Amino acid sequence: MQTAYRAIRVALLGAGSVGANVARLMIENKQELAQRVGAEFEIAGILVRDAHQVRPGVPSELFTTDAEGLILSADIVIELIGGIHPAKEYVELALNSGADVITANKALIAAHGPQLFDLAEQLGAQLYYEAAVAGAIPIIRPLRESLAGDKVNRVMGIVNGTTNFILDRMESTGADFDEALAEATKLGYAEADPTADIEGYDAASKAAILASLAFHSEVPVEKVHREGITSVTALQMETARDAGYAVKLLAICERVDDGLVARVHPTLIPLDHPLAAVRGAYNAVFVEAESAGRLMFYGAGAGGPQTASAILGDLVSAAKRHLAGGPGLADSVHANLEALPVQRIQTRYQITLQVSDEPGVLASIASVFAEHGVSVETVSQSSATTGAALLTVMTHRASEQALEQVVSSLRSKNSVQQISSVIRVEGM
Fold it and tell me: Is residue 338 part of a domain?
């Protein structure tokens, strides 16, 4: 005898790669999901721009262009259209109607998360967003719940698959940036306009979310220091490899004095660090907590089925809460740590510069570092062109502010022909 289940109406906003996979999996696994939840999911409809466009595996009779009607008819709303507007208005409408909301929209959460969480709390609803960071990797819930009683000191991760693929190809094949980007585009890892990825905007949104969760404080995305990978060169990759490092675009969120710093930039990490082994379009997040120690979360950072997996996890959680009743759980942002500028960090640096190949230059360069209190760990020299040498300087830990002063002074020296690269170094 088949069990009769209560129905929970679910509205899907968006039928792109992720939305289509969510709908397909909900239909294919309908009975199994019902057994896990104790209720049956009923797709109330799927919001699309063109109701006549065919989406394989998704019944066309579910398509609608009536956003308000669909949202107001649902118990749970899954927002997968991306961007800020009209996604924000749709989420607000859903929460105001009493529905729980699930989203994969990192830009929305990074920009308006605190306001939306406040609204959800006032209305007794819940806003879920596991898929907003690192695709299928479960990182939101561990930070939000599992580590909520611990003191997280640092979160460091590869959170953008496109940039990791590009840097990986540059390292493994010797390709330059443009060649690696072209390959990423051809394989579907990069969008036609890859700016959000290669300039670090996507990773910065995710860093804001991770920092807010890890440190229980509001971290606006505009407070995240951001650098992209467009200036990374094949020579830089080769130099890093020879020195025992890999170049990765990292999102780093850490406690600094009485505040926190969130930053995204190309980074050197030792080849024996777990993050150095993350290849292709995969993501990984490395968490350092006071009691739990070092934890690593690794997996597919994007993709329709992979992200759909995270969405369905949130859907099951939302359904169970919906059945049990009671208010939703708000994110904790009561620590009120200040988001500080990147100049407050201390780390190591690798500076590569082309200098005149003549006596006394090395001593002159070393004196600049000493003048600003930056200790030099190693210096290597190789030939550049006739009459020029290439110096690669690795520093001990120093402040970002002191390093900026060093670079400014080096640029003013006649013996320095070019500063080829300045890159931060992180490790265990």
Answer: no
